[in-house]
Amino acid sequence: MRFLRTIIALAFAFTAALPGFAASNSADLPHVHVQLIAPDAQFHPGANKAGLYFKLEPGWHVYWKNPGDAGEPPRIKWTLSQGVSAGALQYPVPKRLPLGPLMDFGYEDEVVFPFQVDVASAASSGSATLQAKVSWLVCRGSCIPEKTELAIVRPIGQGTESAQPDQQIWARLAVKLPQAPPANLKIGFAPTAIGFRLTVITGQKEAEASFFPSKPDILSNPAPQKVTPTANGLTLDLKKDETLTANPKELTGLFLLSNNRAYELIVPLGSPKPAQAAPPEAAPASSTASAGPSAAGSSSSVNSVKPAQTGLLRAAALAFLGGLILNLMPCVFPVLFIKGLSLVQSGAEEKHKLRTHGLVYTLGILVSFWMLVGVLLGLRSAGSHLGWGFQFQSPVFLSLMAALLFFLGLSLAGQFEIGLTLTGAGGSLAAKQGYTGSFFTGVLAVIVATPCTAPFMGVALGYALSQTGIVTFAVFTALALGLAAPYLALTLQPAWTRILPRPGAWMEVLKQAVSVPIFGTVIWLAWVIANAYGAAMLAALLCSFLLLAIAGWFLGRWPAKAWSTWIAGLVVITVVWVCVVAPRELTPSTSNSSVNAVASKTGEGWQPWSAEGVTRYQSQGRPIFVDFTASWCLSCQVNERVALGKPEVQKAFADSNVVLMRADWTRYDDSITRVLNSFGRSGVPTYALYVPGESQPRLLPEVLTPGIVTDALAQLPHGSTQSSASNAH
User: Fold this and answer.
1) Which candidate, 271, 177, 282, 190, places its Cα nearest to that of 238?
2) E strands along 141-192, which residues?
3) Which tens digits make up the pLDDT trace of 474-510?
4) pTM for the complete prediction?
5) Distances 653 to 351, 689, 693 between C-alpha atoms, Å
6) What is the rounded CA–CA span in Å between residue 681 and residue 673?
7) SS3 for 365?
8) CA distances from 59 to 55, 110, 138, 354 (A)
9) In sequence order, what are the beta bridge partners of 607?
């Protein structure tokens, strides 16, 4: 046995060490060769040169630090030997990469992102090891997020010899970095009716110039930049971004002049002043790995659709109505069913206790919504684009939610007793426990409600997320009150509880019956995980279910025993660990899983959505129907079965020669998020019908019937349908 334990320990140690041995200084992945380079054959104490090199297939590109309308720059997470540190990536001068009406900033062919390697002065011998986890987005219409591990080792000494061929790459590409502005360059800007006018003084007449903003959402990226030469320089007119509400006090970015003169600088508000170099940025690309898979597209939308011009009162009313209807959604039904059971059990309580339960339940929903909108606003201010239900794009959240509901279902089915207070029933427990249960039942209702976008909610949420923080909180508060209203009304009018049956032995049967919709929800969550993250993640989830069943057996076989509770608690902690670790170890790359997820949903004429595809079919004059969906969205699945999949609807699509596209949002995709935001929507389902000759798509309701779809198709211009049919032939 001792020998066997030794072998197992050695095997684990060897497995843990494999990544370090396997890492190479280069990797070849789809459409790109990526490599860590260092032009010197050895490092020396102090500052040293190194870089991240990309060699791209023709037509493909990676991104600048501000990618433009969509995209993501390369990112690195370092593991460095002792006494070695790595600086931020430096970005060479990018290209403007137009796609339809949009503009990205990035690099084609090949590029080096230099960075500085600092070796401690005490290190005069040995070697320096740089190991990096690199992630990037490579795009050409469609985008592929990729990642790899690279490592480079250099001896530490005093030599100055170069390392071939790293030196050749460095000499060819590292010279393309922007420079500090010269002393004779003066620059300033002034607001105009549509943007900003840069006044530049160089001491000579200039005819060429362009400006790349370092920060997003300041300038309209695709808008032309008008150059007007002057006797001692030029003026450059820039158009501001449509979402910009207040003029900035300064513009930071990359300023280009003719003859490859490129300066990274700060443009002050007012008359021209001596140019000030932009401070070096602690770019996230140099220090952190991507927090999660991202499938950001190279473009965000084909047509810009203004958010619905909805007033605050109307948006709040729609949100309240949407919250009411949300109670009827399948994802919320199990929680409300449990809450109804608790109301039956509490039928004999005093009136003020019932009312307090209702108010506490409402408070739980309100606090949950306020926390959720706080997270959304915080991420929005940090530059993220997230929508309603974004947490259902996290495999960790999905796994933990499925495990929680499975454990709850075991208790309701009778395997063990954990007290219905944990889910808000709180029937005969003490007042404090019961109120706690009511509060967290409200929390649970919000958690499981977010994958559904009920009717009337889409416009209201889209409006709220595009407004100020106060407006957003107001609309989400109305939504929360709508969700809480049915139960709250019942508790505020205790007389209505007379229609409820008296407590009795039948309640145990009813409690067990409640486990059926709970387990149904678990099956749905497991299907979402398998569909989005693969069979390995499903297997890990099933193993966690087995562990929870064992924990429940201990609690049921030896109830109220401290030792059995401790064992069950350790098993539950193990399940939490599995749910957190398994997604990182077992989830396939975003690109593969996303392709598989979309492929599994295509068929019957459907094809994966891409902005490039929409542009192509629009140029052919064909109508396009885009289904923005996700596997975790029950409303989406219902619409696909009761409307989009019906034979009469499919025939109407075929007769109108409509191009059918599905935009799968099961896993986070920034390009899809941006399109939804441009529609004034923040979640799925969303249905867009692009009509030939119209610049903006027509949006259909969130709840579909065959008649709604066929009526929309019947309103297509007859001439465009014939034209598109002839193009197809």
Assistant:
1) 190
2) 142-155, 186-191
3) 888 888 888 888 778 777 775 665 555 555 565 567 6
4) 0.44
5) 57, 11, 18
6) 9
7) helix
8) 12, 11, 10, 66
9) 661
